[in-house]
Amino acid sequence: MGVDLGVLLNSTPQRLKDFRGKVLAIDAYNVLYQFLSIIRQPDGTPLMDRQGRVTSHLSGLMNRTSRVLQQGTLPIFVFDGAPHPLKLGVLRVRAGIRARAEVEWQEAREAGDLERARRKAQQAVRLTDPMLESAHELLGLMGVPIVQAPSDGEAQASHMVQKGDAWATGSQDYDALLFGSSRLVKNLALSGRRKLPRRNEYVTVQIELIHLAENLESLGLSREQLVDMALLIGTDFNEGIRGIGPKKALKLIREHGDLETALAAANLDMENFEEVRRIFLEPDVTDDYELAWEEPDGDGILEFLCQGFDFSAERVRTAVRRLEEGVASRGQSRLDHWG
Amino acid sequence: MFSAKIRSEVLKEITDVISTLVDEAKFNLAADSLTVRAVDPAHVAMVDMTIGKDAFEDFKADEGELGLDLDKIKEVLRLARAGDVISLEHDEDRNRLVVRVGNITRHMALVDTAGMSDPKVPNLDLPAKLVVRTDELRQGIKASESVSDHIALLATPDGFEMVSEGDADSVRLDLPKDLLDELQSKEKVRSLFPLDYFSNMVKALSSAKTVTIFLGNDYPVRIEFGLAGDAGNATFLLAPRIESE
């Protein structure tokens, strides 16, 4: 979910091929949730194999990742580790929302209210251990490197961008900017024609690129101040102040310079804010990872998806072909392999 | 402290060479020179450039660094008329680069250099060395562009070759020893490179009449050339494509 900063930020539209040769550190949980949420039937039922196991995430990984790789872009999937204790509260709230949505989904479906059913189904999305395992396995067969974050995946992805190992972070959340990622790519998993929620309308979602430095510059803020703003609005690690949204937060931080002063001026209190700040400014990350894009195992992918999860062989072959095109456009070594 | 005046052609030459690989770059300042070292986002190529103060009409600098958005420099260059001298000054209080061209003054926001590391120049052992005219390279590239996305560079004891092989066609530029200013190659060496990178690099050279190429077998290439009438010099490194099987 992350902090709500979208209204304040400038972004530039991008095409997939603009990322050719570039390394994108993708927040794996975030993208898997996107797939699980979008790839559904009109009544909200996810894709499933004959055994009733959900396969929406695998379908998304296959189709989207193969298109990314086809363009000669090099994705890294960064998986979350143990959540920070302060995130547990948010996670509990979300679990509650999910449980409720699950019941309401069934009710809506029985009542024949497809619109509501689909919406509730999307709220009920759950990323389970077997889904994570199958996602790992498929990425491995596709030759895509996986990085295990010690804690937050976005923090780790941002760290890799700061180190220069990746060009941008890929996520729907803006948290990567708080974590100091100089570039954030949005809608990587989402671009294309999408239905608007609660309306029978479609929009074309474009991939967007957000530059941190440019946005800080135009907002007239430092990264520390952006983090302070986020704390006022509310993040995955704190609730924020009721009634303060992005615009008000911006005004307060501009006026008072930092969170402490802004809180004092408004006679407000905030728990744990120093700790939450630390989560963003000094995140728990690791340098213990290896990045290598291997050749895809086409037969392995076919066997895994078609025999394992009842995918259509034709569609999987199309994806494998894209992966092979990507490899052909690769073959390119990096300078750091030499000398 | 940084304050300099530079002819627009020279600034364009510098900018073109760096922007072949990156959109933003860190300019390292010293009392008598300016250096830039940058790697493209895909880590396929590197530029390592030193511009001596003689390339400038006027140059005063303390040790320091400036992060510049090269697109903005290009915007300024488009405002310049032939022979214009562009003045550059670092406004340290507001952390802006104040750029003056003609009667126009632009206050340019600097790019944060905190995230820009100084890339390490790989230590390469390249057995072949040759000096070739830039316009010959351009011809070879032009011939290859419709044929393939890749170009092989070969050095033999007898000459230098550029070869592109497509699915149906192939093209080759042969430069025997007597057409080269210099050739040292005891044996045949060959490496394959992405044509778009190689082409962009060569196109960025505007004043160098010749370049020095160091080549190995399935190994990066080093391309050295002069800038700003030899008041500066630069090196491109380009990683090879590795042909599997």
Walk me through the topology.
The complex is a heterodimer of chains A (339) and B (245).
Chain A: E1 12-14, E2 23-27, H1 28-38, H2 56-70, E3 74-79, H3 88-110, H4 114-123, H5 129-142, E4 146-148, H6 153-163, E5 168-170, H7 175-178, E6 183-186, E7 192-195, E8 202-205, E9 207-211, H8 212-219, H9 223-233, H10 246-256, H11 259-265, H12 273-281, H13 298-309, H14 313-329
Parallel strand pairs in A: 2-3, 2-5, 3-4, 5-6
Antiparallel strand pairs in A: 1-9, 6-9, 7-8
Helix pairs in contact in A: 1-2, 2-5, 2-14, 3-4, 9-10, 9-12, 10-11, 13-14
Chain B: E1 2-7, H1 8-19, E2 24-29, E3 33-39, E4 45-52, E5 58-61, E6 64-69, H2 70-79, E7 85-91, E8 96-101, E9 104-109, E10 128-133, H3 134-145, E11 150-156, E12 159-165, E13 170-176, E14 182-184, E15 189-194, H4 195-204, E16 210-215, E17 221-227, E18 232-238
Antiparallel strand pairs in B: 1-5, 1-7, 2-3, 2-6, 3-4, 4-18, 7-8, 8-9, 10-14, 10-16, 11-12, 11-15, 12-13, 16-17, 17-18
Helix pairs in contact in B: 1-2, 3-4
Describe the structure.
Chain A is α/β, with parallel strands linked by helices. Chain A folds into two domains: 10-219, 5'-nuclease (Rossmann fold); 220-282, Orthogonal Bundle (DNA polymerase, domain 1), CATH 1.10.150. Chain A is built from 14 helices and nine strands. Chain A has helices spanning 28-38, 56-70, 88-110, 114-123, 129-142, 153-163, 175-178, 212-219, 223-233, 246-256, 259-265, 273-281, 298-309, 313-329; strands at 12-14, 23-27, 74-79, 146-148, 168-170, 183-186, 192-195, 202-205, 207-211. In chain A, the strands form two sheets. In chain A, strands 1-9-6-5-2-3-4 form a seven-stranded mixed β-sheet, with helices on both faces. In chain A, strand 5 (168-170), helix 7 and strand 6 form a beta-alpha-beta unit. The longest helix of chain A is centred in the N-terminal third of the chain and has 23 residues, at 88-110. Chain A starts with 11 loop residues before the first strand and ends in a 10-residue tail after the last helix. The relative contact order of chain A is 0.17. Chain B has 245 residues and is α+β, with helices and mostly antiparallel strands. Chain B has two domains: 2-109, DNA Polymerase III, subunit A, domain 2 (DNA Polymerase III, Chain A, domain 2), CATH 3.10.150.10; 128-238, Box (Proliferating Cell Nuclear Antigen), CATH 3.70.10. Chain B contains four helices and 18 strands. Chain B has a nine-stranded antiparallel β-sheet with strand order 6-2-3-4-18-17-16-10-14. Chain B has a five-stranded antiparallel β-sheet with strand order 5-1-7-8-9. Chain B has a four-stranded antiparallel β-sheet with strand order 13-12-11-15. In chain B, helix 1 (8-19) runs antiparallel to helix 2 (70-79) and helix 3 (134-145) runs antiparallel to helix 4 (195-204). The radius of gyration of chain B is 19 Å and the shape is elongated. Chain A binds chain B through residues 21-23, 74, 161-164, 167, 180, 182, 213, 217, 295, 329, 331-339, and chain B through 39-46, 109, 111-112, 115, 117, 120-124, 149, 194, 219-220, 237-244.
